[in-house]
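Notes to self, Cysteine desulfurase:
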Amino acid sequence: MTKIFDNTAIRSQFPAASRMLYLDSAHQTPLCARVRAALEHFFDEGYETAGPKPVWLERIEVVRGRLARFIGAGADEIAYTKNTSEGLNIAANAIDLKAGDNVLMIEGDHPNNAYAWLNLKRKGIDVRFIKLETDIASADTFTPHIDSRTRVISLSHVTFHAGQRHDIASIGALCKSHGLYLVVDAMQSVGVLPVDVKAMGVSMLAAGCHKGLLVPQGLGFLYVDKDLDALQPAYLATAGLAHPPADFIARPDDLTLRSGAGRFELGNFNLPDIHALGASLSMIDEVGADNVEAHVLRLGDRLLAGLDELGIGIAGPRERKHRAHIYVMKIPRDWLPYFEAHNVRVSPERDGIRVSFGLFNNENDVDALLELLRTRMQ
Ligand SMILES: Cc1ncc(COP(=O)(O)O)c(C=O)c1O
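result:
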């Protein structure tokens, strides 16, 4: 079924987008009406009925299924987490790495991914940062660095600091052919680009839900390929057990793990946010992730054309298939007070000032930004 992307209708769900020039979805997305309604519904239930917990727990599974379908996974391949960092740390500690093994990463990738692996240095794991010499990373970036002790490649799908969209599928194929794990940070891509974990050949994929997935901070998820049974959780709680004791007395003789990604779950869930995620996933599904991608790319085309006219470069790639919703304009940070004074939300980044689009942005937003740039440059 063809999905309809009605930008005006979507935008009306995001009042913040009309109150300011919001170009900072790579930082966080503003709350939209549908997500807020789901949160309110949850709070009303808690307020009025002290919480129908069994109903909430059933809904967790419904949302888990929806999230799984959204990224091409099975429901038993999804664990709820707190954020990207937690997912990446669970992933890094689940692999049976031995002293002398190495992990390949891209220099300058998100620190929350790097630290999850760097923390294993104390166990003798070697984390090797590869300098990116091309627009984006692909299998060719990693091939020359793989040796007999390489076990893992880990990188972002879309980078936060320049908006590169790495070629994960080629890296996935490379990892399969060398028997390596591929661990992906999808914080910036999920909800903005179609993500298909099977097509990309990912072993584990972690993300938070407060950017492209449109919910408040505090919820993330980890995809774990169901065929990777050898992966073991570093932490254990009742939630991760196959036979949780009904009398709540721990059974030292039965530590059998739950099958699937659920074995990595710990304790109670972020119930409000999972309710919010149910609403945001329905909304993005109705619109279509491929339509969101096409929309942010169109806005990117318009921005690039305008920046070219003004003689402003960008830090990341220009080629369409190598970018997504993040554009870092090469202008100095002293532009920030000017943007602030004009009610524009953008972020400072390593090489300039970052503009990032969401499904609610429109062409007028791009034109308004370009007009502000032009005015100050005159
Ligand atoms: C690529 C990437 N990874 C991770 C994070 C954040 O990590 P966490 O969800 O643990 O706060 C961000 C930005 O907030 C990001 O851009």
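- DSSP finds 13 helices and twelve strands in the chain.
- The chain has two domains: 7-23+288-377, 36-285.
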